[in-house]
Design brief:
two-stranded antiparallel sheet; 5 helices; mainly alpha; 4 strands
Length: about 140
């Protein structure tokens, strides 16, 4: 899995997406709502990063199928994704899943319970990694 994600990261870096301020922990407990407002809290992991990392984390912390993830990305963009965007954002679901999988291994080694996320993140890193690598290899 490590080699797969490493290869995928090289492909994603080749997309030359400009780094920018990212939250890097975008999942549902960090979104608060009040009337018609949405607040994003808990910025401890924020930094200059690939913007796909935020959507990667959001999706890998959910229980979406690959098709559902593509719909979420389409809603996020407000349009169909270009082939480069599709490759890149699917890659970052895998990359983010792998990052959080490693984090979960560490937390588990400390005796902390991470629930079913350990298995979910491993599965997502593998599944989305395969999808993204296929997209990159067949990109025309």
């Amino acid at each position: 899995l490590r080699e797969k994600i490493s290869n995928l990261y090289e492909y994603a870096e080749g997309d030359n997406i400009e780094k920018r301020l990212c939250h890097n922990d975008c999942y549902d407990p960090n979104f608060l709502t009040d009337n018609n407002n949405i607040y994003l809290i808990d910025w401890e992991y924020s930094g200059n990063a690939d913007p796909a990392s935020d959507m990667g984390t959001f999706i890998c912390c959910s229980d979406y199928t690959v098709d559902e993830a593509m719909e979420v990305l389409k809603i996020y963009f407000g349009r169909d994704l270009t082939l480069v965007e599709k490759c890149h954002y699917i890659a970052y679901i895998a990359i983010s899943s792998y990052y959080w999988f490693i984090w979960a291994l560490y937390k588990t080694s400390l005796g902390e319970d991470v629930g079913n996320y350990l298995d979910l993140w491993y599965e997502y890193a593998d599944t989305y990694g395969n999808v993204a690598l296929d997209l990159y290899k067949n990109k025309k």
